[in-house]
Write the structure tokens for this entry.
Amino acid sequence: MKANLKLLTLEEIQAEAVQWLWEPYIALGKITLVQGDGGIGKSTMARAIAAAVTRGEEVGGTGVYAPPASVIYQSAEDGYADVVKPQLMKLGADCSRVRVIDESERGLTLSDERIEEAIVKAGARLFILDPLQAYLGGSDFHSVNGIRPLMKSLSAVAERTGCAVVIIGHLNKKGGQAQYRGLGSIDIYAAARSVLTVGKLPLDDSMRAIIHSKSNLAPLGAPQAFGLDQNGDFCWLGDCEITLDEMLSGKPKAENQFSKAVKLLELALAVQPVAAVEIMRRAEEQGISPKTLNRAKSALGVQSIRKNGQWFWVLPI
């Protein structure tokens, strides 16, 4: 049936500010793409975000910023009973606020009406699909005509419900610019209002970086780091200094500010404690900011001790 034409002027549309789940990385009512190589920690990071939402805590930090809210987490690769729930519990999630759409009778797709119904019924603030390619319903992953209608449908659901939608995808191995390294059609990258690329920090195998590689809603946020060890223990580490090219290539710059700060502390404190004011003076001479110096101090486990009315820094034994 032919639809009746209805024209609106922008004067009739009320302007609204963007609302955030994690500013400026994940917006409410929009799609965010989290991409990275397999096994890099994308799912663990997504579950850490989900856990924070169920507790009402600021994502990436510890400050309470909103009432605890529900999350819908759809996983096609990990079992809910033996992987997803145990990890969420380890991350401190309120599992009574984490919902799953039952797919036992019919598999879920990006255009499935149950997504919107579930978000509304649960009052969900966050909806996670992990991974994207498992929810295409047979559509050609690499076809614009196959992907565009699905992404448009999911985007409309996010807009109507005000729920943050996070989709997790893998990168291909071809190299090149980040927007062309995602598996599937470029329309996936284009439809996302924010793209977060996850990879290893070359400095340490147990550290990961989140690079804000695309943002249509606000200036790009600073790269964020998190720790992920062999036992699955997760912790947010705050801002880090790395570029997307450095992370994807696995090759850091010859000397970035964080590595300079680490080297400074290792050399200065190798033999004995040094006065904190002296360390800060040396850091300033080398152009290392106090914030970066404190990150290096935390990463190395440097301790502060008071002696004769003065503070000293000392490496742990």
